[in-house]
Fold this sequence. Notes:
The protein has helices at about 55, 75-80, 95-100, 130-135, 165-170, 195-205, 225-235; strands at about 1-5, 10-15, 20, 60-65, 85-90, 105, 110-115, 115-120, 140-145, 155, 175-180, 210-215, 240-245, 250. By secondary structure, the protein is α/β, with parallel strands linked by helices. A hairpin with a 2-residue loop joins strand 7 (about 110-115) and strand 8 (about 115-120). The protein starts with a strand and ends with a strand. The mean pLDDT is about 95.
Amino acid sequence: MRIRLLRHATLVVECDGKRILVDPMLSDAGAMPPIENSPDPRDNPLVPLPMPMGDALRDVAAVLITHLHRDHFDDAAAMTLRKHLPILCQPEDAARLRQHGFSDVRPIETAIFWANIEITRTGAEHGTGEIGRAMAPVSGYVLRAINREEPTLYIAGDTIWCTAVSDALTLHKPQVIVVNAGAARFNEGDPITMTGDDVVDVCQAAPDAKIIAVHMDAINHCGLTRKGLRDHLKDIHVNDQVLIPADGEELAL
Length: 253
């Protein structure tokens, strides 16, 4: 299994020889306005894609979307992605994706099989209280190759540490876990993605897993940087368990 971080939460996952694009945010740097009601009013994305679009999307066989917030599926993705690609998504997003012209939208209620990969949807909480309810629905996904010995991958999606994440770890026992860090937040309320402490909770709940932390340094309302997370994990002595890739970096697992 190989996982390349393009930027923010946009990944290319190679599983069972197939390349799956996850949460495509493909806009040029500064092409989108800031996330409103947040403390840093810079245009998004804060950084460009680390490679030409053609290189980033080469040989992509399917797209997996955790939810349709614009930092996970933007107008550039809607316009750029080939319309015949299989689009794997939560059921609540299927109609809107079809409206974008995609002809092979496959909503995942519980689990589906695609190209010898079992993809199971998991729960997530994109914040607490009223904000968390307003940000819903969001999902995570577990990917398991059926015919090859590859790690079980859990993409937690936009979520804080919560019962749904704990339950997914207990049920699926993933060897690789991608978490969306960044401690994204608005001017009011609690963080809506994982803080440093949340990442530590994942490490402690899955001590034998490798954690990949993404979702940092690319969107204006994410206050936790890669450096800040590294420093926090070093203080808690779990930094060896967590990989924090740079934009464009590929990890072999």
